[in-house]
Amino acid sequence: MRNAFAEEIARLAATDERIALLSGDIGNRLFDPYKAQFPERFFNCGVAEANLIGTGAGMAMCGMRPVGYTIVPFITTRCLEQIRVDLCYHRLPMVIVGVGGGMSYASLGATHHSCEDIAFMRVLPGMTVICPGDSHEVRGAVRAALQLDGPSYIRIGKKGEPLVHETEPDFKIGKGIVVREGTDVCLLATGNILPVAVEAGEALAAQGVSARVVSFHTVKPLDDALLRESFERFRVVATVEEHSVLGGLGGSVAEWMTDQQNVRARLCRIGTPDEFLHVAGEQEYARECWNLTTKGIAEQTLRALGASSDRSSR
Amino acid sequence: MPAPTTLEHVARRIRGKLVEMSHHAGTPHLGSSLSCVDIVASSYWSALNIDPQRPDDPDRDRFILSKGHAAPALYTALAFRGFFPEDQLETFGEPGSVLAEQPSPGCVPGVEAATGSLGHGLPIGVGIAIAGRIQRRSRRTFVLMSDGECNEGSVWEAAMFAPAQRLDRLAVMVDYNKWQATGRSDEVMALSPLKDKWEAFGWSAYEVDGHDLDALCDALGRVPDGSGKPVAIIAHTVKGKGVSFMEDDNNWHYRIPTAEEVRQARDELGLSH
Questions:
Q1: Looking at the domain assignment, is residue A191 inside a domain?
Q2: Closest CA–CA distance from residue B128 to any residue of chain A (Å)
Q3: Are residues A254 and A214 in the same domain?
Q4: pTM, 2 dp
């Protein structure tokens, strides 16, 4: 995903002179093609994220379109107040790109894990929160975010994620993309867990359960129409994210549900628990620990479906 | 009241207004506002290339009041300078007024940034200066900070970044009144030697008497100073300056003057009631 971001931002900077890239001292070689073409619009801001965001805010005040890039925890929680005050309060169009969403950097330890960032970012007034599900979506997300008049957060994985879409889908902020149609359950997946959710949909089909799988890439604003339709059509709607079940997509949808009349479908929040991971291991291992595997997601969905059947048969 | 004829008179008029506003609205931070009046006046009546009729001119110099708690000083200067009607100052702090205790984004023409949380103005100023270079604008950017504000880590992040970017059209002005909210600023943190710190960070630093209007105008007028570095102006000030019973008394960080104290203050400032 990060390569797709680097390529797309270099492509866009060629036609939009307002774009400037601010890196938090990461992306060694990644931005070389960009730097070669636009040296005057590339800034290694060092390991100083508060200043990175404030600098971006000042640039945006002058009509530029700054794009900030570093590892998720450092460009979200580390400088949360700068994002809140400098960007959101002023409604400035800076695009914040966090690399290493969820457990992408599992082996680096919990300082580099990001299972709370969606929650932090989505409560900020005026902030748009996008979690692309594959590299195609990353490109669409970057282009769409640069069209916004206010701040946005794009949460990407790292590199080598499987592609879900064969070609770039029609990407619109706040409009989920149905990846797989189904009739029994609906999986709303956001971000880099999307390929696993798609596999889980196939695993469910093999067990005779027809699952719709949606790339629910925008956590804020929610796709209200898609949620309404899904909660009407399905008995179980499951949110799937490599993020805490608190405050992320699952939390958002739970809030949304509370405001609806006569919702019959059951919501199942699949994500990481309210705890840190203290041991070594790569992303795959972390996903196993937290049941965020193909099997784990399918099982949690089936369990919810079973509970739903029990409830409706009573 | 006769029209101000000298900068010194402008500064006195601003101070008198600040004392009234604090009393009228019941708002704190009077000592902090009074200490930076001469810096604000030198900026708006001398250093800044601005036109109150064209507050959005892309080439205008930018002034960011990073010590947002001194907002009344900024509002008063902007009103007296013609950015918005003076009588609007009467609404300061009233429910629904755009003139809040700390400036909100674009609340009145001339306010460049919303501030209040300390340590935000300098990074924003850095971004404005960088954008100016990319956009080939002639503007300069001035950021007014308090000494207590220099506690914030983000100030020093920006302080290291600006010289690396050779932002010689960026200036910091530190209102060094030797107090922060609840203690001496040199005791709470090891702030001193402040000029040396800025120099060590790669800035061209000057110390001035922050109440000597000529010295201030001279220092501010030196930006850019030819060194290729951003400029730090350490302005030695007195908290509560201009009102004898408020000077260097940190109770006036929060205290609100009574009607009688307003009268005394305005008498001392040689202003009518």
A1: yes
A2: 5
A3: yes
A4: 0.96
